[in-house]
Amino acid sequence: MANQTSKNIRLGAMVIAGTALLIIALYVIGDKQNLFGSTFRISAYFQNVNGLMVGHNVRFDGIDVGTVKNIEIINDTTVKVDMAIELESQKFIHKNALASIGTDGLMGNKLVNITPTGVPSPQVEEGDILKTSEPLEADDALRTLTQTNADIAVIVSNLRTFTDQMSSPNSVWSVLTDTAASENIKAILVNIKQTSSYTALVAAELNAIVSDVQSGKGTLGALITDSTIATELNQTAANIQLISDSLVYFTADLQSISDRLLSGEGTLSTLLNDTTLAVNLTETIQSARNGASDFEESMKALQDNFLVRHYFKKKNKMLEKERKHID
Amino acid sequence: MLPAGLVRFLTEIAEVTRFTTKFFREILRPRFEFAEFLRQCFFIGYKSLGLVAITAFIMGLVITIQSRPTLVEFGAEAWLPKMVSVSLVREIAPVITALICAGKIGSGIGAELGSMKVTEQIDAMEVSGTNPYKYLVVTRVMATILMIPILAVLADAVSLYGAYLGSNIRGVVSWDLYWNQVFATLTYSDIMPSILKTFFFGFAIGIIGCYQGFNSKKGTEGVGRSANAAVVISSLLVFIIDLIAVQITDLAGLT
After folding, report:
1. What's the rounded mean pLDDT across residues A119-130?
2. Span A195-205, mean pLDDT?
3. Is the complex ipTM higher than 0.90?
4. Which of A223, A306, B10, B32 sees the fewest Cβ atoms within 10 Å?
């Protein structure tokens, strides 16, 4: 009998575990769908609910706060959607919040989104009716698309006339289709290509030179960068020009002089070539020196002469006065 | 004249129907063999628990691992718990439980009652004034009716745990997130029909096992045949009931 009891206990444990699991699962699922717990009801009038069904979620700020409880058609343009919202969320939802119908993900379930407007307003109460913002409707999108299509049709017809004109023989198209022209253009292009490659080389070299010059490398660089040198050099060059011009004449004169000298023409040539003249000149100089000493003696004698003695005395006194004054 | 095979088949159907209606008649009569019922519940329910749990665990794990590549292809890896939980709870766990029980319990009942029939214990019971149908059949069928749903619920839980481990072999799904996703996905329309049909699975397994045992032919060969037939027919019936259940839930708009 004890054996039977222990079997029954084990059996009972299993049955309780099974039923408890079932009840817990049912409760959790019900809780997710807001079947239990305190809720309050609010409604919203939509023009189109886009396939929303009873049991779909209601989201506030992206959080599941309730479920759709009832959907009924009020009239041809109004559908009333009743929502059961958790009581805990009541304090966050305001009367001016907007309800809209959205989709969970790209192809998920439909849901009602409640979006706060940010404008202060009292909190929502049981039985309140929220304003709605209409979801994007495929019909509206199609209507816009129809208009777009009509516009595109006009544009395409314009484009067609344009292309027709383009392809007529007397148009730009004939130039484009002319093979000779294209050959010429090709040749031109080849030339342009070569020229441009040479130009590029030259430009590169020029560039190197210019950069050297700019950095002051070489004479030219120095010349260009130093402005004083440049002006001086300019003057120097001008002077050199003048000198060299004069030199030409001078050398020419020198040439003729030396020629005449060599040929014994003129006074200087005579002087250079005649030895007797030199002797005479020496004697002349000697006699001139003698004459000068004679003149000195004559002058001394003259100073003592009474006619002019007074002048010389006066002169000496003045000299002496000047000397004292300086001391 | 109808072919002999068809006649045999129709007779068999009639016998089963009579056997089944007898069950409903007998169960309403007083004096329920409660001790025997508990004993059968222990053998049928508790003794099958380990087998069912292992099978369910492996199924949860395997289904998850197998489903992953397809979902990854769609970039819907995050949907793995949702998808697996629905398929496990709606279909796999109940059917696997029923099939395991059809194999284990159906054959057990068939063989036990068959050998009792062959050794004329059932006839002896009738002579001694005990209603063999009430004592042997009603208790066993009631036990299967009540135990299979409980086993199925436990199998659901164990297979979902297996699926949780399966989700975490390659991906990372936290414990909280996993159960959150599972319970956010499951609805009453997933759980209720699947639990409800397990009662019918249990009934089919019990009644077929008992019928095959009660109508066992003479000899050890007859016992073996009735055990075998119990397993085959109850397994087949499990699928047929499943098909009918799906049709009904579909018509009721619960899919």
Report:
1. 86
2. 85
3. no
4. A306
Tokens at A109, concatenated: 């379930």
Q: Is the CB of residue B154 less than 8 Å from the CB of residue A18? A: yes
Strands (E), chain A: 39-46, 57-60, 63-75, 78-86, 98-103, 110-115, 129-132
Judged by CB atoms closer than 8 Å, whether chains meet at A4 and B39 is answered as: yes
Closest approach of B11 to chain A, Cα-based (Å)? 38
| DSSP per-residue string spanning A161-172 | HHHHHHHSTTSH
In degrees and rounded to multiples of 5, residue A3 shows phi and psi of -60, -45
User: In the 8-state DSSP scheme, what is residue B78?
Assistant: G
B149 touches chain A (CB under 8 A): yes
Residues of A with CB under 8 A from a CB of B: 4, 7-8, 10-11, 14-15, 17-19, 21-22, 25-26, 28-30, 32-33, 55
Q: Where are the domains of chain B?
A: 34-251
Does the CB of B187 have a partner CB in chain A at under 8 Å? yes
Q: Alpha-carbon distance B244 to B234, whole Å?
A: 15
Separation between Cα atoms, residue B249 and residue B191, nearest integer Å: 11
Q: A264 by DSSP, 3-state: which?
A: coil
Banded model confidence at residue A224, pLDDT cuts 50, 70, 90: low
Which residue, among A1, A23, A29, would best test binding to B if mutated, counting the most B CBs under 10 Å from its CB? A29
Asked if B82 and B33 touch (Cβ cutoff 8 Å), the reply is no
pLDDT tens-digit series, residues A71-117: 899 888 888 999 888 888 888 888 888 888 888 776 677 888 888 88
State the pairing for strand pair A129-132/A39-46: parallel
Taking the CA of residue B225 and the nearest CA in chain A, the distance in Å comes to: 31
**Which residue ranges make up each domain of chain A?**
1-32, 39-136, 137-171, 274-327
CA distances to A278, B27, B193, B245 from B197, in Å: 165, 21, 6, 6
**Contact status of B86 with chain A (Cβ, < 8 Å):** no
Burial of A87 (0-12, 13-18, 19+ CB in 10 A): middle
> Given an 8 Å threshold on Cβ–Cβ distance, is B154 in contact with A55?
no
Considering only CB atoms, which chain A residues are within 8 Å of B156? 21, 25
Q: Tokens in use for A304?
A: 């003592």
Q: Do A14 and B46 touch (CB under 8 A)?
A: yes
Structure tokens at B67: 């489903």
Most confident of A125-129, B134-138, B179-183, B196-200: B196-200
Q: Over pLDDT 70: what percentage of chain A?
A: 83
Distance CA A179, CA A177 (A): 6
pLDDT in tens, B210-230: 999 988 887 778 888 989 999
Which among B108, B156, B137 is positioned nearest to B33, based on CA atoms?
A: B137
Residue A113 backbone dihedrals phi, psi, to 5 degrees: -100, 130
